[in-house]
Amino acid sequence: MRRAAQTHLNPDSAPGPVAGCEGVWPRSPQSRYNRVVKPHSFALIGPGRLGLRLAIRMSERGWSCRAVRARRNASLPLREALPGPWVGDTWASPVRWPRVDLILVAVPDHGIREVAGRLAEGDDCHSAVVLHTSGLRTSEDLAPCHASGAAVGSWHPLQTFPALGRFPVSWEGVYCAIEGDPPAVEIGEALARELDLIPWRIQVGDKLRYHAAASVAGNLTHALVVAAKEMLASTGMEPHAAGEALKPLVRASLEAALAARGFEGLTGPLTRGDSKTIAAHLAALSPPVADAYRAIVRLVTNRNLSDKDD
Ligand SMILES: NC(=O)c1ccc[n+]([C@@H]2O[C@H](COP(=O)([O-])OP(=O)(O)OC[C@H]3O[C@@H](n4cnc5c(N)ncnc54)[C@H](OP(=O)(O)O)[C@@H]3O)[C@@H](O)[C@H]2O)c1
Hints:
Helices cover about 40% and strands about 15% of the residues. The chain has nine helices and eight strands. The chain has helices at about 50-60, 110-120, 145, 180-195, 205-235, 240-260, 270, 275-285, 285-310, and strands at about 40-45, 65-70, 85-90, 100-105, 130, 150-155, 175-180, 200. The longest helix is centred in the last third of the chain and has 27 residues, at about 205-235. It binds NADP nicotinamide-adenine-dinucleotide phosphate (NAP). NADP nicotinamide-adenine-dinucleotide phosphate (NAP) binds next to helix 1, strand 2, helix 2 and strand 6.
């Protein structure tokens, strides 16, 4: 349970510096949300797909990575991937960390609570702000760190981060959903701006719907496009050429969907009520893709019917 009496975490009390974070905590109320953050130190727990890219981006923007903790030694990033004099360790063989301003927890959602408990036990977080990067989980998952004196928050960039390597990822203009203790939110917002993200405050009770929307837009679209590419490749096209061939169609469809208010930008048999063509498609598709197709037909037709009722 959260400790309620901490003055620096009480939203009703005057904000003050988080111990060890004096360099980033604004000194006057006017500067609260607009100050420029100077380079700081941070530790990363979970150098996976997002964590590593984030640490690299932060290093490029002048933040100093001092420690990286992974589950296994084999998961620690190569020195050339992440510059800096960071200490690399695991929970099994922890090394005493240098003091840091910010601890980023970028482990899978189900591991955040456990990591928070271990951080609090190890007395590693008492002087820092601790942020986790889950879109679904809230700052409550970091309650043990809060109880140890840290300001805690969740900090989620609304972007997909595949493993480093083949897939470039853009940070500019990406929204970043943030909630938590006021000092953590403040530092999370400043960090987001430093990385060219657009900070956005989210309510704890909205995180589930927010994250489900992100998954529908990102993961489901991705899965459908991969399925379409494989079908095109099955007609004899090279897999790479299939991706290239679909690119203009996928991009134009997404642009139209993003600009539309409803389904008015949609084209194809679905919008023409062409049930014969839809039935022919369904017969040609593999069962899981046909199921997805049917579900989307229902989504569009139900919505169109209810729009007509209005
Ligand atoms: N990737 C994205 O597109 C994306 C976007 C926005 C937000 N996020 C969020 O970021 C978080 C991480 O996602 P991800 O996709 O980056 O996951 P990931 O690629 O699986 O990386 C997770 C990392 O955490 C390590 N780890 C797991 N348990 C740990 C523990 N107990 N202590 C220390 N390290 C531990 C893993 O090491 P091992 O390899 O040894 O298990 C791995 O390095 C999630 O909360 C996710 O929702 C991800």
